[in-house]
Design a protein that fits this description.
319 residues, alpha+beta, Beta-clip-like, four-stranded mixed sheet, 11 helices, 42% helix, elongated, binds S-adenosylmethionine
Length: 319
């Protein structure tokens, strides 16, 4: 195998190509593979492990703009939108535009990928670049692992392998849903980026989970009041209810013991005097209820009482 002279380190090579928005057009070629897989990118020259191969070039947009475009793009286009994390924010390389860039045509291989995606910062902007995982021979298809495990073409390939030895996995791929594409590609970036080169970019759901975890981890007990237990909650609710009720709603008893005594007496008297007269008993009970809660209601209800009882209550209150 011919020795390849590197003019630059792979990182510098990637930056040089990314900043000028050019591909290694003489070293790579696009070939149509089949109707399922579509096109693919192939090496025309051998590459060494670690070499920069190609940039996944497109328009750098915010996650908000990415969401907006997903709403209006056809699914065949959204599959070319590559979400990633940079500076603790989500970004997207929108490569939906059919231009001459080569990176957007690299297919998935989760078993024997020969490249991996890395994020490279050039002139203050992030770029997604593919680097060789191993030596690549001329004529080989350039691939990387999109990540995940449920890509439709992978499942179909397995079914086909089982059903027929004559069909290769390459012959039965299917397009993934756009949302799955995002997640898988993000995972791939996250998995393959070294901490030195670029921070990992998790998927949206991972981001959310991480944000929550981080939030929880970084907040001290002082900052985040702890959740009370159920009993504490109940106690708190009762306290709160009591606190929020006005004196009109829950008037204080002036003298509970006196009231209690009065209640006992009235109860006895009522039973003695109004036995058989259920409605009066209910009136008395009503009065007593209010006595324990409010003088006002007591006095109102007292008009319903017998003269003797009124007199007694007056005396008791004046005591
Ligand atoms: C970024 S594009 C790659 C270029 C694409 N093959 C084309 O012709 O435009 C991703 C799409 O390629 C197809 N693809 C990628 N890897 C595949 C594989 N291993 N088998 C089958 N189809 C694949 C899927 O349709 C996927 O939606």
């Amino acid at each position: 195998m011919a020795t390849i002279r590197r003019r630059n380190t792979p990182l510098k090579d990637a930056i040089a190509h990314a900043t000028r928005a050019i591909d290694k057009a003489t070293e790579l070629e696009v070939k149509y593979i089949n109707s399922f897989k579509g096109r693919g990118l192939f090496a025309k020259v051998p590459y060494q492990k670690g070499d920069f191969i190609v940039e996944y070039r497109g328009e750098l947009i915010s996650s908000q703009e990415s969401e907006r475009r997903r709403g209006i793009y056809h699914s065949k286009c959204t599959v070319f939108m590559f979400d990633f994390c940079w500076k603790e924010r989500m970004w997207c390389i929108d490569a939906a535009q059919e231009d001459d860039s080569l990176g957007r045509l690299v297919n998935d291989d989760h078993i024997y990928p020969n490249c991996k995606m890395k994020r490279v910062i050039a002139e203050g902007k992030p770029h997604l670049c593919l680097f060789a995982l191993r030596d690549i021979k001329a004529g080989e298809e350039i691939t990387y692992d999109y990540g995940g495990s449920d890509w439709p073409w992978r499942k179909q390939a397995k079914v086909q392998e089982t059903a027929s030895d004559t069909l290769s996995s390459e012959e039965v791929p299917q397009s993934p849903s756009p949302s799955k594409m995002q997640a898988k590609v993000q995972n791939t970036v996250a998995d393959t980026l070294s901490s030195e080169e670029v921070p990992h970019s998790p998927s949206f759901s991972e981001m959310q989970a991480k944000t929550q975890e981080t939030g929880a981890d970084t907040l001290s007990s002082e900052e985040v009041p702890q959740s009370p237990s159920v009993s504490e909650m109940q106690a708190k609710t009762q306290e709160t209810s009591a606190d929020t009720l006005s004196s009109e709603e829950v008037p204080q008893s002036p003298s509970v013991s006196k009231m209690q005594r009065m209640w006992m007496y009235m109860r006895t008297m009522t039973v003695e005097q109004h036995v058989g007269q259920g409605h009066k008993v209910r009136i008395i009970q009503n009065v007593i209820f209010h006595i324990t809660h409010t003088h006002i209601h007591t006095y109102i209800n007292i008009y319903n009482l017998t003269f003797r009882l009124k007199l007694y209550l007056l005396v008791m209150c004046l005591e």
